[in-house]
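Hi all, posting the design record for the shared folder.

TITLE: backbone redesign
STEP: 1 of 1
STRUCTURE INPUT:
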């Protein structure tokens, strides 16, 4: 077999021109690298070699600093070196981003590169945490088994059977760890949601028996609609919400060739929009309760470094105890789709003054808004979403901060107390005109009839609303500023989950989906007509040629396991809900050897 090693420099010189050319290139590369080899011989070994009496070893930066003078004449670009940028101490600081060339700095500052780096970091963290936890638990199970099997009264034959049984259980657990999560891992119970990019189902994990809300989205649709970044953002945020009681948790994320899946905790009480549709107007004390919990939920998201940007009553769910959880993080963080920004700006700029209807009374505004929501499917279920709650700087495509979420919460608080959104109109055109002239359109609701005067807003509530729906320079932008408002002065901000909720869902079981739309009812499905129509239109769009082959790596790192199954596969819990083999129990020792499956 011919050697792949390059010919030596002193090879036969009587070669043809092509051969000489090849050797010339090889010699040039060796010549370029030779100063590096020479420079290593110029090191001051008294400094570079560690002192036997010292624990300090020279770092790479120190070695480079010592050899730097010998490498000054070297063309770093030709051999792939990074620029020798030194910190205050004269040493290269790679961790601080020093020592990179311009194109390398641009590359690592790319948001997509940073996201993939973070995902990779989390992946390896989760991988080794899971692996080391499993190995530790397995070791403890083995120790416990040996302790229980060393009893001299145990028959050797029986001990052998127990050992084979133990090994079989460990093999079964190891086999489970190698099994990929897939749609067949869940039992689909009923559909509970429908969006522009997929469906949401109530499902139960077949092994752990966890009840989840399983969101199923088609990859091709997401690619055509340029929504991949938003879905990845939602997945990344959901993996970070596990420590907050106010944010919906992600249990599993997985994929197959055609779809991606997000299995989240099921929040059975429906959303706040359904609550508003059923109640119309909330009492001030009830509005204060829900608004307080919404501010806490949004602040939990802000503490993770994300801005939601698309807050509306539909994005707040009510759990089994009646408390609030925030969901739908698809538009959080990052940047909005440029096409959508242009669409929003265009709609705002095209709004006409004649569409501004400031003469309507509060009763008329309330009636018009209710009619719009019930009769116009575009209003409630638009794929793009209603602009009713979006801050004006987002609609204008301007720079914004966390305070845009406080504008949205101010709009929701207004709707709690008034029964309609502050900028709602009889037509979409009127709504855009109201938003364009928001400072004129924002008016305090007023009821003249004696029986309706109970719905007039208090001074404290109106002050809170106007402090939130305001110019960004004057708008409240922190949770502490909101807590200082008189309207919220009586709330137990630090212990809200101990407060009894105004509404507690009446649930028959953990899989009761009664507070969600019935997708088997044709009448209820009528309001999803536009959603289905747009989904069919997207399906008809031909896939781009580059998308057919260039999208394979987009979903790398999407998979996530964080539910009960993850604990079971680490050996923390068995697959029947009882303690794992190594955990101490009050039962006799035989239970410690109970089958894990």
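Okay, here is what came back for every position:
SEQUENCE:
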């Amino acid at each position: 077999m011919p050697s792949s090693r390059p010919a030596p420099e002193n090879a036969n010189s009587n070669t043809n021109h092509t051969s000489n050319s090849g050797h010339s290139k090889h010699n040039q590369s060796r010549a370029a690298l030779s100063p590096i080899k020479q420079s290593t011989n110029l090191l001051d070994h008294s400094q570079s070699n560690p002192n036997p009496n010292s624990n300090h070893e020279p770092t790479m930066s120190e070695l480079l600093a010592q050899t730097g003078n010998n490498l000054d004449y070297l063309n770093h670009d030709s051999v792939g070196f990074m620029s020798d940028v030194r910190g205050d101490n004269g040493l290269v600081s790679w961790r601080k981003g020093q020592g990179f060339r311009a194109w390398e700095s641009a590359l690592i500052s790319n948001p997509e590169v940073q996201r993939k780096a973070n995902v990779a970091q989390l992946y390896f963290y989760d991988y080794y945490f899971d692996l080391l936890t499993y190995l530790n638990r397995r070791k403890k199970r083995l120790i416990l088994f040996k302790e229980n099997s060393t009893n001299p009264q145990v028959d050797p034959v029986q001990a052998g059977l127990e050992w084979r049984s133990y090994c079989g259980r460990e093999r079964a657990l190891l086999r489970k760890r190698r099994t990929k999560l897939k749609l067949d891992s869940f039992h689909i119970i009923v559909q509970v949601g429908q969006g522009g990019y997929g469906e949401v189902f109530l499902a139960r994990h077949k092994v752990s028996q966890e009840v989840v809300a399983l969101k199923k989205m088609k990859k091709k649709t997401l690619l055509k609609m340029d929504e991949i970044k938003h879905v990845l953002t939602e997945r990344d945020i959901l993996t970070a919400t596990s420590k907050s009681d106010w944010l919906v948790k992600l249990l599993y994320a997985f994929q197959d060739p055609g779809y991606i899946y997000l299995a989240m905790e099921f929040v059975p009480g429906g959303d706040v929009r359904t609550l508003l549709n059923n109640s119309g107007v909330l009492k001030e004390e009830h509005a204060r309760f829900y608004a307080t919990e919404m501010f806490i939920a949004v602040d939990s998201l802000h503490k993770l470094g994300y801005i939601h940007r698309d807050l509306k009553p539909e994005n707040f769910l009510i759990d089994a105890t009646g408390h609030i959880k925030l969901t739908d993080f698809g538009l959080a963080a990052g940047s909005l789709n440029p096409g959508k920004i242009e669409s929003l700006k265009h709609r705002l700029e095209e709004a006409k003054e004649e569409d501004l209807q400031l003469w309507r009374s509060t009763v008329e505004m309330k009636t018009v808004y209710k009619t719009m929501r019930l009769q116009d499917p575009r209003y409630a279920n638009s794929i793009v979403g209603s602009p009713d709650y979006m801050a004006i700087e987002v609609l204008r495509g301007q720079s914004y901060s966390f305070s845009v979420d406080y504008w949205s919460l101010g709009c929701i608080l207004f709707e709690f107390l008034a029964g309609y959104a502050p900028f709602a109109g009889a037509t979409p055109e009127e709504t855009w005109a109201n938003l364009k002239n928001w400072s004129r359109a924002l008016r305090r609701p007023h009821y003249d009839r004696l029986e309706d005067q109970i719905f007039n807003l208090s001074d404290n509530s109106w002050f809170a609303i106007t402090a939130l729906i305001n110019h960004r320079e004057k708008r409240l932008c922190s949770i502490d500023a909101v807590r200082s408002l008189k309207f919220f002065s009586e709330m137990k901000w630090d212990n809200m989950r101990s407060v009894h909720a105004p509404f507690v869902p009446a649930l028959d079981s953990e899989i009761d989906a009664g507070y969600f739309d019935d997708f088997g009812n044709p009448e209820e499905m009528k309001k999803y007509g536009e959603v289905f129509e747009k989904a069919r239109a997207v399906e008809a769009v031909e896939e781009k040629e580059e998308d057919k082959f260039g999208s394979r790596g987009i979903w790398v790192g999407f998979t996530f396991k964080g539910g009960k199954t993850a604990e079971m596969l680490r050996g923390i819990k068995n697959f029947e809900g009882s303690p794992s083999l190594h955990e101490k129990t009050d039962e006799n020792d035989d239970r410690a050897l109970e089958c894990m499956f």
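COMMENT: The chain has 24 helices and eight strands.
Let me know if anyone wants the other runs.
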